[in-house]
Specification:
Helix 3 crosses helix 4. The protein has a 10-stranded mixed beta sheet, with helices on both faces. Strands 15, 17, 18 and 19 form a 4-stranded mixed beta sheet that branches. The chain has 12 helices and 21 strands. The two termini are about 15 Å apart. With about 425 residues, the protein is an alpha/beta fold. The radius of gyration is 21 Å and the shape is globular. Bound molecules: guanosine-5'-diphosphate, 6-O-phosphoryl inosine monophosphate (IMO) and magnesium ion (MG).
C-alpha cells in the first residue's frame, strides 16, 4: 500500500473487507473505522483462528497498529466492551485503541426502536441487524444524540440523557413499548464510559498528526456502496455512507488525502436483508455458492442471498465511491461450476441500461443481461500467483476488469490471511 488507502465495500456488504484490512494492517501504522457500528461483522482468519469483529477496526491484532474509531461511527459502548473483553479472553490483549469523543453513542432505546420500526413495516421489512444503527444516526441528525465524549462529563451526560428520554420515552409509549429508566441507563453507561475513558480522545487531531508525519493510514469501510444511505438501494440500506467520499467528514481529515480507493467485491454477489438484487439466483447454483462460500451472516446468522457478479452495480460503486482498483474476493468459491456469468447491463421495460435506477420499483423490474464464460474445476485455494490460475479463471477476471473498468489488483482464494494473490 501507499501511505493512505481506503478499503471500501463495493457491493452489499460482507465482501471480505475485514480480511483485506487485516492483510494490509500488517504494514499499516493506523487503521480507521469511519462509519457504521456493530451492524458490521468483519471476519479475520490467521494461524487457524477465526475472529469476527463488529465495531473494532481490523488492525486490532497488530500490536504496533493504532486503531481508530472515528467520529462518523455509532458506538454501543456496552457491546464494544463485550467485544474487547472477548479479544482479551482469546489472548489478543496488546492493542492500541482510540475512540473519537465526537462519535455517536448507541443507547438501549435505539435497539428497541430499531426492532419496533421494523415490525411496524409489516411486509416491507428492511431486515436490519436490529443493533439500533438507524435510530442512533437519526438522533444524531435530530441533534438529540449523545456522543462518546459526553460519557466522560457525568453532569452533562445526565442532562443530555434526560432531554433525550423526554422524546424517546414518548416514542416508546406510542409504540406500546416499555419506557426506559433514566437511572438504569445512566449507571450502565457511566460505568462503560469509565472503562472506555482511557481510549476516548480527539481522533481527528491524532489522524492529522499521523498523516502529516507520513504514517501509513488505512481506512476500513463497513457495509458496502449498495447499502449506502446516499447511493444505495434506498430505503433498503443502512443509515451511513460507506463510500470513500464520506471518509473526510467522518474522520475529520481533508479530502485531498483520499486518492487510493480499493473496492472490495466478491467474485459473485451476496445480499443479507431485504431489497432489490438484480442478479439474484434462486436455483441450485445459489445453493452451491452459498454452501461453498459459507454465506451466512456474520452478525445475524441469516443465510445470504446469492447472485452473479454485477458489473452494473460495480460501475455504480466505481463512480460514486471513487474506486480506482478492486480486490476480487472468494474467487475459490466459483471452482467446480460448468460456467460462470457476469451481469453487464440491466434490461428495464425492454430497454438496456448501464446504470442503477434510483427507484426501487424500477430496480425491481431490472433483469440482468448476462454473459456466460466457461468455468474451471481446479482447486485454487493454495495458489499464490496469477500465472498458476486456470486459463478460464484468468479469462473470468479479464471479463470482470473489462466490464468494470477497474484493475483487479488483489485476488483472494480463501479466508486465511495468506490466501491471497497480488498482481
Ligand atoms: P466483511 O464484512 O466485508 O469483512 O466480510 P465478512 O467477514 O462478513 O464475510 C466474508 C466471509 O468470507 C468471511 O467468512 C471470510 O472469512 C470469508 N472470506 C474472505 N475472503 C475469502 C476468500 O477468498 N475465500 C473464501 N472461501 N472465504 C473468504
Ligand atoms: P459488513 O461491514 C451486510 C444490512 C442489513 C440490512 C441493512 C440495514 O459486515 O459488510 P442496519 O442494521 O445497518 O440498519 O441494516 O443493511 N447490513 C449489512 N449487510 N454486511 C454488513 O456489514 C451490513 N450492515 C448492515 O442486513 O439489510
Ligand atoms: Mg460482514
Amino acid at each position: 500500500m501507499g501511505n493512505i488507502l481506503a478499503v471500501v465495500g463495493a457491493q452489499w456488504g460482507d465482501e471480505g473487507k475485514g480480511k483485506i484490512t487485516d492483510y494490509f494492517a500488517q504494514e499499516a501504522d493506523v487503521v480507521v473505522r469511519y462509519q457504521g457500528g456493530n451492524n458490521a461483522g468483519h471476519t479475520i482468519v490467521f494461524d487457524g483462528r477465526k475472529f469476527a469483529l463488529q465495531s473494532t477496526p481490523s488492525g486490532i491484532f497488530n500490536p504496533s497498529t493504532k486503531n481508530v474509531m472515528a467520529n462518523g461511527m455509532v458506538i454501543n459502548p456496552v457491546a464494544l466492551l463485550g467485544e474487547l473483553d472477548k479479544l482479551v479472553a482469546a489472548g489478543i490483549d496488546k492493542w492500541q485503541l482510540f475512540i473519537s469523543n465526537r462519535a455517536a453513542v448507541v443507547m438501549p432505546y435505539h435497539s428497541m426502536l430499531d426492532g419496533a420500526y421494523e415490525s411496524l413495516k409489516g411486509g416491507k421489512l428492511i431486515g436490519t441487524t436490529k443493533k439500533g444503527i438507524g435510530p442512533a444516526y437519526a438522533d444524531k441528525y435530530n441533534r438529540i444524540g449523545i456522543r462518546m465524549g459526553d460519557l466522560l462529563d457525568k453532569e452533562y451526560f445526565a442532562q443530555r440523557l434526560e432531554d433525550a428520554l423526554q422524546v424517546k420515552n414518548m416514542e416508546l409509549r406510542m409504540l406500546g413499548l416499555p419506557e426506559c429508566d433514566f437511572q438504569t441507563i445512566y449507571d450502565e453507561y457511566c460505568a462503560a464510559g469509565d472503562r472506555l475513558a482511557p481510549y476516548i480522545c480527539d481522533t481527528s487531531v491524532l489522524l492529522n498528526d499521523e498523516i502529516e508525519k507520513g504514517s501509513r493510514v488505512l481506512f476500513e469501510g463497513a457495509q458496502g456502496v449498495m447499502l449506502c444511505i446516499e447511493n444505495g438501494t434506498f430505503p433498503y440500506v443502512t443509515s451511513s455512507s460507506p463510500t470513500a467520499s464520506s471518509i473526510p467528514v467522518n474522520a475529520g481529515i481533508a479530502p485531498r488525502y483520499i486518492t487510493d480507493v480499493l473496492g472490495v467485491g466478491k467474485a459473485y454477489c451476496t445480499r443479507v436483508g431485504e431489497g432489490p438484487f438484480p442478479t439474484e439466483l434462486l436455483d441450485e447454483t445459489a445453493h452451491y455458492i452459498r454452501e461453498r462460500g459459507h454465506e451466512y451472516g456474520t452478525v445475524t446468522g441469516r443465510p445470504r442471498r446469492v447472485g452473479w457478479f454485477d458489473a452494473v452495480a460495480m460501475n455504480h460503486a466505481r463512480r460514486v465511491a471513487g474506486l480506482n482498483r478492486m480486490a476480487l474476493m472468494l474467487f475459490d468459491v466459483l471452482s467446480g461450476l460448468e460456467s460462470v456469468k457476469i451481469c453487464v447491463a440491466y434490461e428495464l421495460d425492454g430497454k438496456q441500461i448501464d446504470y442503477v435506477p434510483s427507484t426501487i420499483s424500477e430496480l425491481s423490474r431490472c433483469k440482468p443481461v448476462l454473459i456466460e464464460t466457461p468455468g474451471w474445476k481446479e482447486d485454487i485455494t493454495a495458489m499464490t500467483s496469477y500465472d498458476e490460475l486456470p486459463e478460464n479463471a484468468k479469462k473470468y477476471i479479464e471479463l470482470v476488469e473489462k466490464a468494470t473498468k477497474l484493475d483487479v489488483s488483489i485476488i483472494s482464494v480463501g479466508p486465511d490471511r495468506n490466501q491471497i494473490i497480488l498482481r
